[in-house]
Design brief:
With 123 residues, the chain is of the alpha+beta class. It has a single domain, classed as 60s Ribosomal Protein L30, Chain: A (2-Layer Sandwich). It is built from 2 helices and 6 strands. Helix 1 runs parallel beside helix 2. The longest helix has 18 residues. The radius of gyration is 14 Å and the shape is globular. It starts with a strand and ends with a strand. The model has no long low-confidence stretch (mean pLDDT 93).
Amino acid sequence: MPKKVLGTPGPAPYSPGVVAGGFVFVAGQVGSNPKTGETPAGVESQTRNCLERIAAIVEQAGTSMDKVVRVTVYLTDINDFSKMNAVYRTFFPTEPPVRATIGVVALAGAAYVVEIDAIALVE
């Protein structure tokens, strides 16, 4: 099965998502609003936006958030972990994927406080 690129690559040299080998690999999604492009303040709103962006990409691949098997969360401030986790839990209420959370990172764009990537099963 050849790889299939999802979404429209932007000015940066990467694709939002790629389907290959029975999985969809979702590039790191930042906290700007996917409809308006505005970046809200606060990790809760940005986490929600990241996960909504991921949901749209996995749905474009023909799968869903309950098929996500791996997630990495990048936080600029590890003290935001519990706030991020509260929102994250609403997207994965049962059988959550495996996850790594990395704190105190520099993200592209000074307004971003969280970035999330994911891998989901495509059946």
